[in-house]
Design brief:
Helix content: 40-55%
Number of strands: 3
CATH architecture of the largest domain: Orthogonal Bundle
Low-confidence stretches: 97-102
Radius of gyration: 28 Å
Number of domains: 2
Structural class: mainly alpha
Strand content: 5-15%
Distance between the termini: 75 Å
Largest sheet: 3 strands, antiparallel
CATH topology of the largest domain: Multidrug-efflux Transporter Regulator, Chain: A, Domain 2
C-alpha cells in the first residue's frame, strides 16, 4: 500500500501484538476498542482467539498515527513510556569520592555489630570494593550491609579454611 504507515503488516496478529505495534498497553488498547476508536477483532473459528487481519491492522496503525479513530473521534495519545530508559547514559563525570564510603563505614560497622559481627575497616572496605566495583553512591544501605555480611560469612565458613 503506497504511503503505508508503520511496520509491515502480517496476515493476522493477536490483540497483544497489535497493542505492541501501537505502543500501547493491552488494557489501554482494549479501552480504545470499547470506545470505538479501534475496530473489534475477528475471531478464529478453530481457536476462538481474537485477531486482527491486515486491513484492520492498517486501519489501527493509521488511526494511531493520525490521532483519529476509525469512528471519526479525535484521540490524543501520550508519548510511549520508557524511551528515556533506552538512551545510553552519558559519560561519567569522574570517579565517586571515597569520602561518603568512609562516613558510611561507621554506620555499617554499627549495623553489623548489632548483628553480632566484629568487622574491621579493612574487611569492610574489601567487601564493599568486591561487591560494588562501581562504588556505593546511590546503593541502599541495607544492600551494603547484606553484601558485607555475606562476604565475611563466606570468608569465615568451614569449607573455606585457608591452609
Amino acid at each position: 500500500m503506497p504511503g503505508s504507515i508503520g511496520p509491515v503488516t502480517k496476515a493476522a496478529v493477536s490483540v497483544s501484538e497489535m497493542a505492541k505495534l501501537c505502543g500501547l498497553s493491552r488494557a489501554r488498547f482494549y479501552q480504545l476498542q470499547r470506545e470505538g476508536i479501534f475496530p473489534t477483532p475477528v475471531f478464529d473459528i478453530k481457536t476462538r482467539r481474537p485477531c486482527y487481519l491486515e486491513e484492520d491492522q492498517r486501519r489501527i496503525l493509521e488511526a494511531r498515527h493520525r490521532n483519529c479513530g476509525v469512528n471519526g473521534k479525535t484521540i490524543l495519545f501520550y508519548a510511549p513510556r520508557g524511551l528515556s530508559a533506552l538512551r545510553k547514559p552519558g559519560p561519567r563525570q569522574g570517579k565517586p569520592s571515597a569520602v561518603p564510603m568512609i562516613e558510611q563505614h561507621t554506620e555499617l560497622t554499627d549495623a553489623l555489630k548489632a548483628l553480632g559481627m566484629n568487622v574491621t575497616a579493612e574487611q569492610m572496605a574489601k567487601a564493599l570494593r568486591e561487591g560494588f566495583p562501581q562504588g556505593t553512591v546511590g546503593v541502599d544501605e541495607g544492600d551494603q550491609i547484606r553484601q558485607v555480611f555475606l562476604h565475611i560469612r563466606r570468608q569465615d565458613s568451614a569449607d573455606n579454611v585457608r591452609r
